[in-house]
## 1
Amino acid sequence: MTIELEPALEEALERYVTASGVTRERAVANALHEFLDDREDYERAAAAVAKGGQTFTLVQVREQLGLDD
């Protein structure tokens, strides 16, 4: 697979791989994997809300988990 990146994105990728020591291919694959996982989470959440599923604010979740201490 070949992709063309905008110059600013190409430069950011180069800085990242230089600093982290991973290959360009691994960095792009990791980013794509994370994006697809996030997208799947979003789609599941949107489907739950569409079915009338209960939602919680971040404050409510933190309180329920005792994270405000």
Note: The chain has one domain: 7-65.
## 2
Amino acid sequence: MNKGKHFESIKKQPYLIFGITILLLLLWVPTSIHKLIDFESFKNDIYRHPISLSLSKLIIYSLPIIELLTAFLIVTPKYRLFGFIASTFLMTVFTLYIASALLNVWDRLPCGCGLIIAHLNWQEHLWFNIVFLILSITAWYLQIIVTTKSGS
């Protein structure tokens, strides 16, 4: 790659990070707030999962907070990299969960997702998750490059 094209791609990285940041915020903020607003429904959905009661309680009381914290980290420049890492971790877990549903790992597997995501079938949900997983990984990678280049 010649130096001119490389320089142009470096200049575009902050714009790509900004765009991905907006998309991730559109994912994490509404879904976490929806879980808090409709907490009883979210709690009931989690209790229907084939997991232990103690793990269910941990998920119920930590997941909305972790999702909101992820959004906060993503919009805070000093902690943005950690936000992209958290987003990648969450999307990896959720994607593996959806993949296990498609592979019939359990007899029944409810979806505790809300809003638009709740209306997707398992295949659509998997693709949705894969897209957001790729976005999270891409933002993580680009943030490392931008941070390294700026020395901050």
Note: The first helix runs from residue 3 to 37.
## 3
Amino acid sequence: MSPRIEKVCQLFPDETYLVMRLARSSEEFRSLCEEYDLAVDALHQLEGRENRMAADLIRVAEYRALIEELKVDLLRQLQASKSADQQSSGGRAR
């Protein structure tokens, strides 16, 4: 498993199987995982600086907001996939 996908699995530990399945099947989901990973890494780098400037503090706030948006987008993708799975399994059960 790639470190980017692993980071999203850690974010949603109860959805590891679904995260891995979507990572294999959805380019959009993989892109979100990559963006999330890059944003988290950038935030950690900024937070790790000893001599932060005002511009760094602004960037930290921007990255935190971006990360929250990406979490929402990832969760939406997971929920949409679950809904589709439930509808398709419900359709077969009839």
Note: The radius of gyration is 16 Å.
## 4
Amino acid sequence: MIRGALDNEDPDRLYTITSGRSRADESVFDMVTLIVSECEPVPGMQSEHIKILRMCRSPLSVVEISSYLDLPVSVVKILLCDLLDTGRITARHPHAARPGGRLPEPETLKKVLVALQNL
């Protein structure tokens, strides 16, 4: 089995970042929830919170934030809950297709796929 970067992560560091918490409210964020900063960082904030606020001036998904911070998604969700609880970020869930809404024709989707593959 190939060991990833997380296997080399110091568990003490992750414990410190999350203040010992191991779970976030799973109903608030999923992997594609878009996060947007509502304020600028203030002195005295945790460094990870500062990074999140700066990178989320434009919408970013939870999984993108996790990748940029090089932290597990579960840890990022805990940090995001902190920021959401204090009103420093907003979470926007992507809209699902509406029932009865028209989807693109399969032929159109095939043309788009071919065009993307040719890039």
Note: The two ends are 34 Å apart (CA to CA).
